[in-house]
Design a protein that fits this description.
The protein is of the alpha+beta class. 41% of the residues lie in helices and 16% in strands. A 4-stranded antiparallel beta sheet has the order 1-2-3-4. It has a two-stranded antiparallel sheet with strand order 5-6. The termini are far apart.
Length: 226
Amino acid sequence: MHWNDVLERQEFWFWYFALAFPASRTEERSLPVHLRPSTHRDAVRKIEEELEGKVLKVPVGSRYSLQIDFAGFGVHHLDLVGPSSEKLELGWVDPQFCSDSFPWVEYEAIIKFLRSNWSGSFKMPYAALLLLHYVAPATKEEVRNCQSSIRQRLIEASLFGPKDADILSRVIFPPDFRLVHWTKDSQRGWIAAGECYSLRHEENEFDHGTLRRFLQSVGADKSTDN
């Protein structure tokens, strides 16, 4: 599969962020017709058939990759693949989603690293958009950062114009987007606490060591030491 050919199609992004869009037809009417998922139903179904069972790897340096496994409608899973091909599950998006995988500071550092060391077979802005679905902002300012990042990447990738990108950024990260409380642990790094949907929650068993080695390899763990 030629991923640039897939990722440059608007219908892919309607599919990928499907569960972020209004669930009812009444709510959907608040969007311009051309930005309503129902307008693109047939094209989205076609791309869903193409994607089911496919795997996309985002290379992060020479030793690691972030792997996205595609399943049903708007359903995908994120894994970290290490130097020996070992996998660490980071989260998933489905109706019982568990997508609070990265605090904003880690995401920002990962994207900064990718910009300087990109070796993927598809355009870098697509990687930034894909990984944004797994960011869990902790403050209203970070929600605005997520909105700004989605808007910029959609424009940078020539997927949507500024006006449409602005609307979509507020659909995917609305102003009242739920916030996640992250706390810094000296041994484990950032830990999610309270009510959230994260494998990195303080009450879960999680391989923090493997994730932290990955974050250190891209300079992201330094970003969390402040």
